[in-house]
Amino acid sequence: MKVDVAQSAGFCWGVRRAVEIAHKTAEKFGTEVFTDGPLIHNRAMMQKLEESGVKVCKDPATLPENSVLIIRAHGIPPERQRFLESLPIQLVDATCLDVRRIHNVISKYAEKGYFCIILGDKSHAEVIGLMGYAIAGGFVVSNVAEVADVDNQGKPVCLVAQSTQAQALFDEVAAAVKEKFGETAIVENTICRATQSRQGELKSLAESADAFVIVGSPESANTQRLALLAKALLPTYVVDSAEQLDLAELGQYKHIAISAGASSPDFAIKAVEEKIRTI
């Protein structure tokens, strides 16, 4: 069995930074610290963090005075930020800087009266945060067809994307936005470089491999999006851990390529690789 592992597989720099911030914060305060919702979307990594004293908090208002709360990598809306700042707790911001850049882009155009169209998953934490900055109005689309549903309220429009969206889909949506709202519509490609690299590497791996194994949690939107792109190229299997691998099924292939979502830890990817190599 030949096995290739994508160089881009695993933590993007924003996730790695958030995990490092969590570990350093726990070490600094020498006690339990909390996160405002899951720091990242990966079960195995969240369990590791909990073992080191970093726990998910469902309601920060219930935290004791001077507790330490970490803002998740996905970012939060300004209203949520103000609420947390009003509490008698200490805040540590682990928002991905690429996500923070999208906040700034939306804010810049919103202050000029632009209506913001966001390509993304409506219920995803990052998109909920992005919408909070669209003070002149905003609308989330997940595909090209939904562009027809956008009511810009007579305002100029600006299109951005959730940081982990597919580049090809963004290009299609951008064309639809230009067609509906004219060339005055502003398009800002806010897909992060790590996502673009990860998606681009799939195509080169597919040239020699017979199948893909994608590692990541079901909760991870970018993992599921990566899997969809992989399925368009080769037979694809998505697993959260090595225990979920079906070696009998994978045994029909001679060459397997492994990639992983941006929140998949190295230890999970390595375990998957080692188990596949036993075939």
What is the share of helical residues?
A: 25-40%
Could you describe the largest sheet, including whether it forms a barrel?
A: 4 strands, parallel
The main sheet orders its strands as 1-12-10-11
- The pLDDT mean sits at 95
**First-to-last CA distance:** 6 Å
CATH topology of the largest domain: Cobalt-precorrin-4 Transmethylase, domain 1
* Number of strand segments: 12
Question: What's the CATH H-level homologous superfamily of the largest domain?
Answer: 4-hydroxy-3-methylbut-2-enyl diphosphate reductase, catalytic domain
Q: Please tell me what the overall shape is.
A: flat
DSSP helical segment count: 10
Number of structural domains: 3
- Fraction of residues in β-strands: 15-25%
The CATH architecture of the largest domain can be named as 3-Layer(aba) Sandwich
Identify the CATH class of the largest domain.
Alpha Beta
Q: H/E element string? A: EHEHEEHEHEHEEHEHEHEHEH
Structural class: alpha/beta
Unreliable stretches, pLDDT < 50, 5 or more residues? none
